[in-house]
Amino acid sequence: MRDTYLDTSKGILIFLVVFGHFLERIIGWDNETNRILLSTIYFVHMPAFIFISGVFFKHKDIFQKVVYFLSLLIPFQIAYVLFDSIINHQISFAWLIKPYWILWYLVGMVVWTILTPLLKKIGYPVLISIVLSMLIGLSPIDNYLFSVGRVFVFLPFFVIGSVYGKQIIEVLKTNRVYAFLGFLFLIFIVFIVKFSDIESSWLFGSLSYKQSDVGMFEGLLTRLLVFVISSLGVLSILAITQIFKTKFVSLGQHTLPIYLLHGFIVIVLSHFFKYQDSFALGLMMSVFLSVNTCLILRFDVFEKSIKSMSSLLMKSIKL
């Protein structure tokens, strides 16, 4: 039986994913108002989505889960690279060593699925995952390669979701006071973004401290602060879900096709709509396109097609 509360949360978050990508492509980060909006979204939407992924994680059939995520990653990596080469009239071999744009999450799911049971066996999984997320920034390797930076930076959210997620959600959804506090904290994040001028790369978790041109102490402190703010942001999003009741349930039940396919739509439409000089027009267009993209991709035909393709690939791998 599906959990409508979690489906609502997932629906809100997948809309924010699509909305954020349209805002990036249509308006861009150079517009100050859009920078504040985008940074606020990025502080919470992927950490929260990964947290919920951890909540759903079960400690069985690990190999099958890994194969499943690879059966999505490989064909969509090929599809996006080919699509990108057609749109931009050139092919980049850089995509051989890193997942294409939105597909880093699938790489993360592979690694988190393998690591989480191991961390639980070792003991203190949450603490160790946080330490790993801090230490990856000290590595001499390019943290952008294979999305290794993002995978480890966001690891704690998956682990916390797996270990404590259900208990946390049960507490948050029982009292409207938490929704009010969550709303206040999201406003607080807006002010943090406005007055801190934090670089977007810290929210992506994609660069090492050296790549971010900061020293060890500043890098560790900044990443820790971002983690704390994002963690409270996750709690805020989960708490305010109760306000929306079941309005986003349909989207939350079809996050797979929306996640995997919206990138194609964003890439195409963003070539026709550019509003770097008009935030208001860009915002309205981004909302309009995001809503319609989500409403179209939630149809069962898209999810069934993706799952059928995945099943065929999984069978061939097992053979």
From TrEMBL:
Residue span, Acyltransferase domain: 4-290
Entry keyword Metal-binding: no
Transmembrane feature ranges: 12-29, 35-57, 66-87, 93-115, 122-141, 147-165, 177-196, 224-244, 256-273, 279-299
MF GO annotations: acyltransferase activity, transferring groups other than amino-acyl groups
Top-level taxon of the source organism: Bacteria
Organism: Acinetobacter silvestris
Name this polypeptide is given: Acyltransferase 3 domain-containing protein
Pfam families: Acyl_transf_3
InterPro entries: Acyl_transf_3_dom, Nod_factor_acetyltransferase
Keyword tags: Membrane, Transmembrane, Transmembrane helix
